[in-house]
Amino acid sequence: MSEWWTYRLSDFLMFSPRTYWRLVELYNHDVWPAQLAALAVGFAALWLAASRRAGAGRVLVALLAAAWLWVGWAFHWQRYATINWAAQYFAVAFAVQAVLLVGLGTLYRDTYAPPSGVAVQGLGWLLAITGVVFYPLAGLLAGHPWTQAEVFGIAPEPTALASLGLLLASRHPPSRARRCLLAIIPTLALLVGAATLWMMADHLTQ
What we know:
Blueprint: H1 17-31, H2 34-50, H3 56-77, H4 87-106, H5 118-141, H6 156-169, H7 176-204
Helix pairs in contact: 2-3, 2-5, 2-6, 3-4, 3-6, 4-7, 5-6, 6-7
């Protein structure tokens, strides 16, 4: 039996990079043209985060909840779970995030805090715009075809990234305690996504 220190990071990967990106490509093909609707929702979310209108915050979290529920079911449960057994738990986590967002928007209507400071809002806008606009373009720059583009509301990582940013940038943010609660699952989703990309990159260097 090999010693544990002889294992590479990619040895823990349950699928090849080619299998993963082929799954993403087939998923994009199956749900097309949902990507266009998701991009529209993303831009609407950016507008709502900047809006001073009453109720904008509740509509924003409702849109985010719908995005998390869709990605959890359509990507993790229906597709990713076929090559990664852990994806079924990711799907549950995404559903929990959707429930938390709905609860924020419907059960706690009077708990919105004053807008964040300039620095925090600036960071929020950077994350939000990156998740909605630049994340799909980053894949193209990395050499992936447009058929494998990962879009907010369709793929996990841009959805998590934009959600974190929108919660920070919104002019109608939840209280700090609820904001921290809502940040847990998106942060974990980003860490899992980063680890997966790292393992796939390590696999390609073998």
